[in-house]
């Protein structure tokens, strides 16, 4: 966590709050994993500095959703934490970081329409190399409901968790696992 990400997080979270401590621990774990993935994907020329910062901010919207398990008592359903984080970071003037918040959930327009999700009707899937790497890293960690926040799931366990959320997410996750050499092609 550097001064830039620390300042934004501090603006919205008290470090001693449950939500604040989960957010920071989770985001640090994701950042570490994302940097590890990026290290093995040098041929794709990922922006390391951006990956580290955007990993710290990808879940910044959680305080606006209702998820008491992780100390969040906002009004919105959990599925909106990405778009809410995006809106927040856009207001702060950080458009590139904002996109990571929206896209790390891997939700397609089709799913939004079919399931009548409370989200704008557009694809919310990672597009850039950096977005892909952060999204992939994120799926190796929970926010503490299942186990310790920093506990890293095995590839099999991460796949199992992702598969509960449907075929599209599983397909996208498998694509990322292969692209970033976390499973054999
Ligand atoms: Fe996350």
Protein described:
It is built from nine helices and two strands, in the order αααββαααααα. It has 185 residues and is mainly alpha-helical. It has a single domain, classed as Hypothetical protein af1432. Strand 1 and strand 2 form a beta hairpin. The mean pLDDT is 94. The structure holds fe (ii) ion. The site of fe (ii) ion (FE2) has 5 residues, from helix 2.
What is the CATH C-level name? Answer: Mainly Alpha
Describe the biggest sheet? Answer: 2 strands, antiparallel
Taken in chain order, the helices and strands follow as HHHEEHHHHHH
Estimated radius of gyration? 15 Å
Q: Mean pLDDT, nearest integer?
A: 94
Q: How large is the count of helical segments? A: 9
What amount of the residues lies in strands?
Answer: under 5%
Uncertain runs with pLDDT below 50, 5 residues or more?
none
Q: Which compounds are bound in this model?
A: fe (ii) ion
Which features does this protein show?
Hypothetical protein af1432, globular, mainly alpha, 9 helices, binds fe (ii) ion, 185 residues, single chain, two-stranded antiparallel sheet
Outline the secondary-structure elements.
Elements: H1 3-12, H2 18-39, H3 48-57, E1 66-67, E2 72-73, H4 81-92, H5 95-103, H6 109-114, H7 129-138, H8 155-163, H9 167-179
Antiparallel strand pairs: 1-2
Short description:
The chain is an all-alpha fold and about 180 residues long. It has helices at about 5-10, 20-40, 50-55, 80-90, 95-105, 110-115, 130-140, 155-165, 165-180; strands at about 65, 70-75.
């Amino acid at each position: 966590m550097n001064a830039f990400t620390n300042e934004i997080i501090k603006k919205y979270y008290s470090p001693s709050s449950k939500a604040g401590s989960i957010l920071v621990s989770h985001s640090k774990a994701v950042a570490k994993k994302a940097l590890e993935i990026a290290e093995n994907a040098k041929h794709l020329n990922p922006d390391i500095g951006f990956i580290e910062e955007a990993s710290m901010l990808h879940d910044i919207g959680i305080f606006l959703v209702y998820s008491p398990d992780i100390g969040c008592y906002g009004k919105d359903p959990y599925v909106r934490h990405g778009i809410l984080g995006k809106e927040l970071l856009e207001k702060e003037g950080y458009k590139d970081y904002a996109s990571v918040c929206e896209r790390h959930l891997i939700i397609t327009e089709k799913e939004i329409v079919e399931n009548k999700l409370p989200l704008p009707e557009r694809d919310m899937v990672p597009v850039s190399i950096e977005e892909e790497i952060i999204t992939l890293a994120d799926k190796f960690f929970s926010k503490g409901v299942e186990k310790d926040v920093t506990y890293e799931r095995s590839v099999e366990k991460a796949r199992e968790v992702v598969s509960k959320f449907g075929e599209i997410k599983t397909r996208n996750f498998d694509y990322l696992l292969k692209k970033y050499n976390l499973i054999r092609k």
